[in-house]
Amino acid sequence: MKDESGEGTIRTERRGALMLIGIDRRRKLNGFSGRMVTALADAYQVMEDEPDVRVGVLQAFSPHFTAGSSLTWSGPFR
């Protein structure tokens, strides 16, 4: 799925007992948006709930794994 919003996506793919989870927000060095954090939590929940999933691999769809979380969505730190 192509991300038109610029907020990035978490892509998942099943290959038998393997679940690939991909971070895809190239323009922001794969920095996580709020939507991506939610999608990643959803992917982890699928791994927890599906007895056929034995292994999960977190990968990135760019040369950079991740720049961390995007400060624009996380709000001020106290």
Structural description of this entry:
The protein is of the alpha+beta class and 78 residues long. The protein has one domain (9-69): GMP Synthetase, Chain A, domain 3. Helices cover 26% and strands 26% of the residues. The chain has a 3-stranded mixed beta sheet, with helices on one face. Helix 1 links the parallel strand 2 and strand 3 (55-60). InterPro entries: ClpP/crotonase-like_dom_sf.
Assign the CATH architecture.
Answer: 2-Layer Sandwich
Put simply, the count of helices is: 2
Helix content: 25-40%
Output mean pLDDT: 86
How many domain modules?
Answer: 1
**Biggest sheet, spatial arrangement of strands:** 1-2-3
Series of H and E elements:
EEHEH
Q: What would the CATH topology be?
A: GMP Synthetase, Chain A, domain 3
Structural class: alpha+beta
CATH class: Alpha Beta
3D shape = elongated
Summarize the topology.
Blueprint: E1 9-15, E2 18-24, H1 34-49, E3 55-60, H2 71-74
Parallel strand pairs: 2-3
Antiparallel strand pairs: 1-2
Which descriptors apply to this entry?
78 residues, alpha+beta, GMP Synthetase, Chain A, domain 3
